[in-house]
Amino acid sequence: MSRNPTDNCVDVDLVVNGEELRVRIEPTKTLLELLRELLGLTGTKCGCGIGECGACTVLLDDRPVNACLVLAGQVNGGRVRTVEGLAVDGQLHPVQEAFIAEHAVQCGYCTPGMIMSAVGLLEQESNPSDDQIKRALAGNLCRCTGYERILRAVRRAAGRQHAERQDG
Ligand code: FES
Ligand code: FES
């Protein structure tokens, strides 16, 4: 990362959804602002902006983080994944499919963050218990769907992923 003396911005090198990028950004901007405003990746939502709601959850080096709490400069050299990067060749990720199948979406505002937290969990633990799922989603708030359907969706995705790994 280098600072440009003319505009006080910094150059940040990072990988977003598999694409290597260099962005110039003010050092006080957050990863959330980088994604939404600079890159146009508006799938990641801004709910509270203070780390309370989880709507802005993305994966940073495979770990879920609140993008509103991470400064853009902190991701220099990092690998970020957002909801836009989940589908492959037009095929939704199993967690996305499970949210649809279980009707775990109403307004959808929390959904990208929920899904990224669930993906982060399932990559670490392919067959999580309900307690593990609840802990992983504890930082993601939903005000309309109700958590039971969301829990069922993650369970469904886990079952499928688990079965696929055992078959493979
Ligand atoms: Fe980041 Fe709410 S917008 S936690
Ligand atoms: Fe509306 Fe969760 S679906 S906040």
Descriptive terms for the model:
168 residues; alpha+beta; six-stranded mixed β-sheet; 5 helices; 35% helix; 17% strand; globular; binds FE2/S2 (inorganic) cluster
Description:
The protein is α+β, with helices and mostly antiparallel strands and 168 residues long. It is 35% helix and 17% strand. Strands 1, 2, 3, 4, 5 and 6 form a 6-stranded mixed β-sheet that branches. A hairpin with a 6-residue loop joins strand 1 and strand 2. The protein binds FE2/S2 (inorganic) cluster (FES) (2 copies). One FE2/S2 (inorganic) cluster (FES) binds next to loops.
Brief account:
By secondary structure, the chain is α+β, with helices and mostly antiparallel strands. Helices cover 35% and strands 17% of the residues.
